[in-house]
Specification:
By secondary structure, this protein is of the alpha+beta class. The chain contains 11 helices and 20 strands. β1 (32-35) and β2 (38-40) form a beta hairpin.
């Protein structure tokens, strides 16, 4: 399973002299400062240069309203320079938190009482789940490779200053335009060649991608190529309080929805793409309603995000949380996790059948009546081999073995069988 990407440190929280000290500790004895936060250093990938290297080919910039950045005139060293940038930004993040966990949003942390209130306002109590701590290398590329086919088109929008608006809560918000469609394979190639998403999309304000693959030049719901994902965006609770990220992640995990991806917005919320694999828009909207109904059992969500061409934040891009020149903050839109929950839509439906019909199950032997953990097998007392084969049931010796998707199909087609089923719970099954 892939893990999440790291936070991008916010350079505005440290004065320039401290930033320089951190940079010099990361690259000791090699930086020659010119003016303000600009300096020059030997390129970390100088051995990869295909033409002659000059003294000032590699530059480091700190504290100019952009993320701390190392850049080189040469293109052949892009991978090494990108790794150097990650090393620099990680060191700045550690210096900012001074041994404490790095704050993941620029707004005040919810106090304990407020967090408990937010946690208990939903219909079901949420167990907070800490976000994964390991990084996903090259999160933008991994996201594209995991969620889309190479020949599909995705719509991208790199926000400009003219897209900036002030929201009702006073925060800076960016409204994306129509965007441009690009082939996934070509976009991945460009990301590799140009050295990362920040070089390919240099505006550095907010980067968006539509939730589903699009037709060429697609801009609306009518232009969606495949109705594959439903966007779930966590909202504030009914009192206007922000849910802690651990509570949001706990709600997503508890839902057991097939989560293709979970992304940190760079501000106060998580967004998930739920895999529904609908055949058409009618089926898409039906499954979207089921997804939203399920999530509302755990946490408040933004109901306005359900159309199939909806914009969501592209992992690896930056989010600008303020005005240029006014101490504006920059955070990374961080890829938190991939492929969580159930494996597919049918398997999710099976978990719903189990929850609704636990009281109809007839436990046999030592089988748990609580039906906790992973369900690995089922036996139907009144079926023959031909009926088993019809549903794709295989055998382990004389014992029928099925998965959750098979159970779901059987229960929907033969509800009278529910009292004749028992489930074996096997760790890791």
């Amino acid at each position: 399973m892939q893990k999440r990407g790291s936070l991008l440190p916010d350079s505005h929280e440290l004065p320039l002299d401290k930033l320089k000290t951190v940079a010099e500790n990361v690259f000791p004895g090699v930086i020659e400062w010119a003016e303000d936060g600009t300096g020059f250093m030997p390129c970390p990938g100088i051995r990869l240069h295909t033409t002659s290297s000059q003294e000032k080919n590699c530059r480091i910039i700190l504290g100019d309203g952009r993320p701390p950045t190392i850049s080189c005139f040469h293109a052949s060293c892009k991978t090494e320079v990108e790794q150097a940038n990650k090393k620099l930004r990680s060191a700045i993040g550690k210096a900012q938190c001074k041994g404490k966990p790095l704050e993941i949003r620029p707004v005040p942390v919810i106090q304990k009482a407020d967090a408990q209130k937010a946690e208990t306002t939903s219909l079901r109590r949420i167990t907070p789940v800490p976000l994964p701590t390991e990084e996903i290398a090259h999160p933008s590329r991994v996201f594209l490779e995991s969620l889309f086919e190479p020949e599909e088109l995705v719509a991208i929008y790199d926000c400009r200053e003219s897209d900036r608006k002030k929201g009702p809560d006073g925060r800076t918000k960016y409204s994306p335009g129509a965007g441009t469609t690009r082939k996934v394979s070509e976009l991945i190639s460009a990301l590799d060649t140009d050295g990362g998403v920040l070089d390919l999309f240099p505006n550095g304000l907010t980067l968006f991608i539509r939730a589903n693959p699009m037709q060429p030049n697609g801009r609306t719901d009518r232009d969606v190529y495949a109705y594959r994902y439903v966007l779930v965006d966590i909202d504030k609770d009914e009192h206007g309080n922000e849910y802690p990220l651990e509570v949001q992640y706990g709600a997503l995990i508890a839902s057991k929805l097939p989560l293709a991806s979970v992304t940190y917005s760079g501000d106060i919320s998580l967004a998930a793409l739920v895999r529904v694999d609908a055949e058409n828009e009618v089926e898409y909207r039906s499954r979207r309603d089921q997804v939203y109904e399920r999530m509302r059992q755990f946490i408040k969500i933004d109901d306005a995000c359900g159309n199939p061409s909806r914009w969501t934040r592209f992992p690896g891009g930056l989010r600008h949380l303020g005005h240029h020149g006014e101490g504006g903050l920059y955070k990374e839109q961080r890829l938190v996790a991939l492929n969580q929950g159930t494996a597919c839509w049918d398997e999710f439906l099976a978990t719903q059948d189990l929850e609704r019909n636990t009281h109809l199950l007839a436990p046999v032997g030592d089988t748990s009546a609580e039906v906790q953990g992973q369900v690995s097998a089922a036996v139907f007392a009144r079926t023959d081999h031909e009926e088993h084969a019809q549903y794709g049931i295989t055998y382990n010796g004389s014992k029928p073995v099925v998965n959750l998707a098979v159970i779901s199909r059987v229960l929907r087609n033969h509800p009278e069988w529910r009292g004749k089923i028992f489930y074996d719970t096997v760790n890791g099954g």
